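Appendix B: complex inputs.
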Amino acid sequence: MTTALLRFEDLSVGLDVPPLAKVVTREDIRAYAEASGDDNPLHQDDQAAIAAGFPGIIAHGMFTMAHLASCLVGWVGDPSALKRLRAAFRAPVYMGETIIAGGRVKSLDPSTRTVLLDVWVTVERAGTTEWPIKRSEAEIRLA
Amino acid sequence: MGYERDGVIALVMNAALEGKVYEPVTLEIDAGFVARFASAVGDDGSFVPPTIVTAPEIVSGLDHVVADQELGLDFSRVVHSDQEYEWIRPVQLGDVLVARSTIESIRFRGGHEFLTLRTEMRDAAGEMVVVARTGLIVRGES
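Resulting structure:
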């Protein structure tokens, strides 16, 4: 990582985390299925996904959550600062779509140097913003 | 799907299994695994991705509940609705994690079934490293 370490003193409530975008490809999802061990056919077999009511395979919720974690770690500059991450999966992600992770500082506790964030992942689909991860939360503790 | 009791096939999960603890699973966070996982999630491999713990969590939790004949989970109708990780300390290269999953709750609401799994991961010294919680919904037949 090349990002400079985030400083607690530079944060304020309402501050935005710089969004991180990523195009989701079949290769990504195949690699994630192998690395994570999640071999649910919804993520590998178009016919299984279509039978479940989707237009084709969908990304793992955990793949999208991992991207959210990458966004936060890249912002903070220190993977060990991430103490808690909660994700509510509320929309599927299809192949070729661009997922955008983001967040906003919700509260700051100077005594523990803990930052609570509202976090999310969005996708623009047919002129509408969908929320693969919606109303979720992260806790970061800075040195 | 469902489970069989007294010769009858139930069409929903067996709520009596709340509190069931599955056999622990051990997984080493070695360099090859870190490289594969980091590459798969788009990280540069210079650190252990925090969500690498999804892999031991799947083996100890999801794989067990899917295979559990007593539970009767219909995996073809499962949607992953919620996920939470609490890192008590950062996961480090070389950690040997022992993951143990518990069925925290089974609920029925609005024609759907809700399953919550809690997975605790400890290091070789027995110290807690990560607590994970997974929420699954089994969608009702429509």
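The mean pLDDT of chain A is 95.
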